[in-house]
Design brief:
Blueprint: H1 2-22, H2 25-45, H3 56-86, H4 88-93, H5 100-127, H6 136-163, H7 167-172, H8 174-179, H9 195-203, H10 205-217, H11 225-252
Helix pairs in contact: 1-5, 2-3, 2-5, 3-5, 3-6, 3-10, 5-6, 6-10, 6-11, 10-11
Keywords: Antibiotic resistance, Cell membrane, Membrane, Transmembrane, Transmembrane helix, Transport
Subcellular location: Cell membrane; Membrane
Membrane topology: Multi-pass membrane protein
Length: 253
Amino acid sequence: MTTYFFGDTRVLTGRTLRHVTRSMDTVITTVITPVAMMLMFVYVFGGAIDTGSGSYVNYMLPGILLITIASGVSYTAYRLFTDMKSGIFERFQSLPIARSSVLWAHVLTSLAANLISLVIVVGVALLMGFRTGAGVPAWLAVAGILFLFTLALTWIAVIPGLSAASVEGAGAFAYPLIFLPFISSAFVPTETMPGPVRWFAEHQPVTSIVNTIRDLFAQRPVGDDIWTALAWCAGILVVAYVFAMAAYRRKIA
């Protein structure tokens, strides 16, 4: 059964990846918003924001990377919703394939598409002056955190992809995720925020993830933030996976 699962997932992932490569406008659309935000914050607001020291593009890039992922996973919900409405899931159920491989194909495609988007955004940031002396271990740590964050958000995207009543509803779940970095340390230090907002900003998942990535890029000790970030990502992933699989079982029952 395990052999069938991996083989079926590989074939179905190839199918969904072909949809992405034949319609690269989805990847381009995903990066337009975060790149536009990066340009606006660096060249319009950056001079008025005091982050202590260093280049502002270095300061805000981690938050932009998380916004890129949040934008990207909305297309996972869209592709999944489209497959559900087209009847392709019913066809797959009639075939001797591992049922969960259908979902995993969409999840793996999300990881691949978001990787392309993140590379483009980092490339634009380099053109805008982003610099880091981080070595290979730090870059691998950043990649690992972004991978886990993407995986967690993708499984969240699976839920509306399976249960939304309309294509607009399938993608709308991403709006709060895109907005969340604005109430964190992603763009301004939390010390500048009023009491209740500061408390929320310092105790929500984005802040610990952003702080960890920022410290890794700046070659500073990451402290406890990395464990908080990993705990948030792992916890969200487990909860989202459980609810997504429950929604999937209800759909195919």
